[in-house]
Amino acid sequence: MNTILIIEDDVDLAELIAERLRDEGFEISVVYSGKEGIKKIIEQKPDCITLDINLPDISGIEILKEIKGSINSNLPVIIVTSDDSIKSECEKYNPEGFFKKPIDFKQLKKIIKITVEKRQKK
Predict the structure, then answer these.
(1) How far is the C-alpha of 106 from the C-alpha of 113, rounded, in Å?
(2) Domain extent at residue 90
(3) Element holding 56 (H helix, E strand)
């Protein structure tokens, strides 16, 4: 089963994303801070991540840099944020998607499915 890690400090939104993705058959892990997220990435090795940029402890940009730079450069990351001014900064690290809150869940599920399928073929 494919595992999606949700790194999101908004508990309600994180649970809503998790619920929608579980309905699609994904195994879901949710963490509410950047430090927890980095720890979970290393321990769990998820198939895809949804990453909020505005986290309480570490910027999502810093996490994105760390993922793409050292933890697992091939790990697909989908950005979910309320701050679309950061989009060009995120694009330097080649995320698989960029979603501005409020999220279009239909599109998010589609991008995650495509991303996970591509990863399985490699």
Answers:
(1) 11
(2) 3-121
(3) none
| CATH assignment of the domain containing 15 | 3.40.50.2300
What is the number of structural domains in the chain?
1
Distances 121 to 22, 49, 55, 72, 118 between C-alpha atoms, Å: 22, 18, 32, 17, 5
∠88-39-63 over CA atoms, to 5°?
10
- Collapsing DSSP to helix, strand or coil, 80 comes out as strand
Whether the Cβ atoms of residue 52 and residue 83 lie closer than 8 Å to each other: no
The whole-angstrom separation of Cα 94 and Cα 63 is 13
List the chain pLDDT tens, one digit each, 122 residues: 799 999 999 999 999 999 999 999 999 999 999 999 999 998 998 999 999 999 999 999 999 988 888 766 788 999 999 888 888 888 888 899 999 999 999 999 999 999 988 877 76
